């Protein structure tokens, strides 16, 4: 038997060619992909929030970041370095920043009308 006679009738000439890698549409059993209408997102504008509110928000973000950093660093100085005085001072500085941030948050909430309770 020759090589051509040993082939199956539906066997491609070159199994690795890109044309032969596509599935046969008749044998594709996967379900159809659903179509979804995606709405357009709203156009954000810088005029959506008052300027004072935006400035107050970023100040509060900075204050609470410093507070969290100091609250985490203080105990690490005590535990890993054994520096109780500096670690305690940094920790209480974090507590003070946290309290200051909370007071500023309450003041901003009263100023910009965030009473949704």
Question: Helical residue percent?
Answer: 40-55%
Distance between the termini: 88 Å
Total helical segments:
3
Average pLDDT for all residues: 81
Series of H and E elements? HHH
Strand composition percent: under 5%
Reported for the largest beta sheet, the result is:
none
Unreliable spans: none
Annotation, overall tally of beta strands:
0
Descriptive terms for the model:
mainly alpha, 3 helices, 0% strand, elongated
Quick recap of the structure?
The chain is an all-alpha fold and 117 residues long. The protein has a domain at 50-111. The protein is 54% helix and 0% strand.
Structure description:
This protein is mostly helical. The protein has a domain at about 50-110. The protein is built from 3 helices and no strands. Helix 2 (about 50-80) runs antiparallel to helix 3. The chain starts with a helix and ends in a 6-residue tail after the last helix. The relative contact order is 0.10.
Q: How is the secondary structure organized here?
A:
Blueprint (H helix, E strand, L loop, with lengths): L2 H4 L44 H31 L2 H28 L6
Helix pairs in contact: 2-3
């Amino acid at each position: 038997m020759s090589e051509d006679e040993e082939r199956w009738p539906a066997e491609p000439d070159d199994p690795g060619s890109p044309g032969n890698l596509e599935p046969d549409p008749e044998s594709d059993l996967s379900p159809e992909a659903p179509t979804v209408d995606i709405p357009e997102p709203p156009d954000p504008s810088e005029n959506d929030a008052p300027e004072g509110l935006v400035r107050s928000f970023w100040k509060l973000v900075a204050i609470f970041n410093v507070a969290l950093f100091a609250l985490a660093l203080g105990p690490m100085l005590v535990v890993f370095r054994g520096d109780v005085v500096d670690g305690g001072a940094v920790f209480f500085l974090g507590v003070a920043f946290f309290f200051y941030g909370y007071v500023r948050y309450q003041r901003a909430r009263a100023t910009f009308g965030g009473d949704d309770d």
